Amino acid sequence: MRDLYESDQSGFVEASRQIIRENVEAPGLPYVLTLLLNNGVIVKWLTDPDYFTTAQATSIVEILRRVNPRIDTLLIAAAFPPAGGGASDKALSEAACLRVLEITAAANNTLRFLPVVAQLLRHSSAKVRTKAALIVGRGN
Question: How many CA atoms lie less than 13 Å away from 111 in the CB half-sphere?
């Protein structure tokens, strides 16, 4: 699979996305997800509500937790707004943060990424701060 990825990255990524959308429990999916995670593709997809439903994203994160227990931390770090971003960047960052918080809130053990979520208590969006506060409160 790695050879397929390296020979045609865009084709592999698009085909992978279709397979993941159709069947989150497809054979070999953990390997494909690991390959996409190591190449920075899957984190972008998980933070964007247009790629997967919340249920699909939550299932994908559960699979990735077995491969990388820090997936929640990676997602939360990716959802921070870019420094010096404009108004459209802020809106995208708010949507990404809310999406990530929704996915990570489904985890049974929020203590492992609680310090990272606590950083979102300073986010510029009141919605993000509120959702982060709910998760922090649940974790204590």
Answer: 2
pLDDT in tens, 81-120: 555 555 444 555 788 888 888 888 886 666 777 777 787 7
- Residue 106 CA to residue 137 CA, distance in Å, equals 14
User: Which has the closest alpha carbon to 45: 14, 85, 1, 9?
Assistant: 14
Helix, strand, coil percentages in the chain from 3-state DSSP, rounded to 5: 75, 0, 25
- Separation between Cα atoms, residue 35 and residue 37, nearest integer Å: 5
Q: Which residues contact 80 (CB under 8 A, 6 or more apart)?
A: 93, 97, 119
Residue 125 has what pLDDT?
Answer: 87
pLDDT of residue 37: 92
Domain positions in the chain: 2-139
